[in-house]
């Protein structure tokens, strides 16, 4: 019988929604996809070595993105750029539907690389790094280690605040 290793953690804030998971395997991918469907997941970001058939994810109607970087490392600039672009594409446009989109992401245990990318997205959307880490840890115990916390504290927001005026 297949089971989820740990329950996915939903992180919602100011119009962005993320589902942090540990890594699925071919034997339990269907359970993860079922969980994704419950949260209206439009995209899965895989941040570790391939561990399941990508075609099964795509067949379910969910887009799979590969943003691999080494465990224990800071994400390279290319990963941050691709991540921020995906987040902007999903959330920064006006979503008029009742069901808000959600991006699921996983590394191996869902405690390091995946929460770090979510923290980066929260910082890009206005949270300070300390708030982002606390917010994620309240929902995913054990997330973000000391090295990742130090990286996040030095992270410089890339997204410019939109300037708008009414005439």
Give a nutshell description of this structure.
By secondary structure, the chain is of the alpha/beta class. Helix content is 38%, strand content 16%.
Number of helices: 6
What is the arithmetic mean of pLDDT? Answer: 88
User: Per DSSP, what share of the residues sits in E-state strands of 2 or more residues?
Assistant: 15-25%
Shape: globular
Helix content: 25-40%
Plain-language structure description:
This protein is an alpha/beta fold. The chain contains 6 helices and 5 strands. A 5-stranded mixed beta sheet has the order 1-2-5-3-4, with helices on both faces. The protein is globular.
Task: Furnish the topology, listing elements before pairings.
Elements: E1 9-13, E2 16-21, H1 29-38, E3 41-46, H2 54-59, E4 63-66, H3 77-91, E5 102-106, H4 113-124, H5 129-139, H6 146-154
Parallel strand pairs: 2-5, 3-4, 3-5
Antiparallel strand pairs: 1-2
Helix pairs in contact: 3-4, 4-5
List keywords for this structure.
single chain, about 170 residues, alpha/beta, five-stranded mixed beta sheet, about 15% strand, disordered C terminus
């Amino acid at each position: 019988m297949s089971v989820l290793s740990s329950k996915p953690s939903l992180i919602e804030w100011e119009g962005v929604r993320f589902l942090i998971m540990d890594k699925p395997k071919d034997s339990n991918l269907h359970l993860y996809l079922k969980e994704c469907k419950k949260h209206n997941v439009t995209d899965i970001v895989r941040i570790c070595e391939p561990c399941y058939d990508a075609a099964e994810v795509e067949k379910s109607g969910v887009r799979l993105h590969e943003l691999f970087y080494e465990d224990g490392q800071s994400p390279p600039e290319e990963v941050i750029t691709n991540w921020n672009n995906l987040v902007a594409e999903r959330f920064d446009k006006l979503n008029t539907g009742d069901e808000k989109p959600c991006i699921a992401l996983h590394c191996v245990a869902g405690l390091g690389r995946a929460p770090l990318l979510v923290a980066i997205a929260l910082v890009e959307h206005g949270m300070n790094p300390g708030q982002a880490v606390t917010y994620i840890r309240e929902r995913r115990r054990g997330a973000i280690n000391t090295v990742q916390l130090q990286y996040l504290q030095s992270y410089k927001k890339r997204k410019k605040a939109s300037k708008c005026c009414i005439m």
